[in-house]
Amino acid sequence: MTAQKSISTRAWGLLLLLGVIWGASFVSIRVALDEIGPLTSVAHRTGWAMAALWLVVLMMRLPFPRGFRIWSAFLVMGLLNNVIPFGLMAWGQLWIESGLTSILNAATAIFGVLAAALFFSDERLSLRKFTGVLVGFGGVTTAIGLENLRNFDLRSLAQLAVIGGTLSYALAGVWARKTLGGLKPQVAAAGMLTGSTLITLPLAIAVEGPLSFSLEPRTVLAIGYYALIATAGAYLLYYQVLALAGSGNLLLVTLLIPPVAIVMGTLMLGESLNPNAYAGFVLLAAGLAIIDGRLLRVFARPVRTD
């Protein structure tokens, strides 16, 4: 087993920044949903982010991807990593709080472990990971609340929609590893967003009508934030943190997002969460800590005595 990569001060700073950016995105999406529909919000998100990332690719003079195979892979990746999760979570935020959405979104890492174990022989589900997955699922169940599943309504359906989005994220990770290896991350992200825009734009127009650009200033600012900063900018930052800290340490960002979203949702939107949501987040965090393993190794170290 390889040692966990240590985190430099710079990597910690970028990791915290990424957590803040993604945490704030849940609030900005909810603000935009006051004026535009969920599919339209996703079309704006992928479209503007796509344009920004292709500009980066051109400025960096990176090779343009060619061939049916790679563009087919981009289309599927866009569906799994953008269209389905962005759409389900945006619709879910119409009925549940931004903070709760961010907590349930943390289940992405739990499903990611299961998906990797299912599709890759080098990602076997050890006893430690299995234990972490069980604890994480306990957190998801607690956050949703069993009473919401017994008294099924739109709020219950919205929470399940968010969970469906996290499952799609996990499958996207598998697809990326199988089909997009060897590509520059900027090119892979731009291609993926192109594939998702090709799906979301006509879908949004067909379901919610033509996109309107005559929007309230707060809606324009919200769209600009979650498209250009929390999507295009965050993808570039994500790969920078990945190079500095490694994939294992990058898992920590999952724990940084919900506190930001909860605080901002409370201050900006007046949201308040059920205590079950906080208890669920604690269990999710514990599950992720078990999967990560570092905390367990700290407690397992022998105590030195003089």
User: Which radius of gyration do the C-alpha atoms yield?
Assistant: 19 Å
Q: What spatial form do the alpha-carbon principal axes imply?
A: globular
Mean pLDDT across residues? 87
Number of domains: 1
DSSP strand content:
under 5%
Distance between the termini: 30 Å
**Estimated helix fraction:** over 70%
Q: What order do the SSEs take from the amino end to the carboxyl end, as H and E?
A: HHHHHHHHHHHHHH
Number of distinct beta strands: 0
Which structural category do the helix and sheet elements fall into? mainly alpha
Name the poorly predicted regions.
none
Task: Give a nutshell description of this structure.
With 306 residues, the chain is mainly α.
Write the layout of secondary structure elements.
Layout: H1 9-32, H2 38-60, H3 68-92, H4 98-105, H5 107-119, H6 127-144, H7 146-150, H8 154-179, H9 185-208, H10 217-245, H11 247-250, H12 253-269, H13 275-292, H14 294-300
Account of the protein in words:
By secondary structure, the chain is mostly helical. The chain has one domain. The protein contains 14 helices and no strands. Helix 5 (107-119) crosses helix 8 (154-179) and helix 9 packs antiparallel against helix 10 (217-245). The radius of gyration is 19 Å and the shape is globular.
Index terms:
single chain; mainly alpha
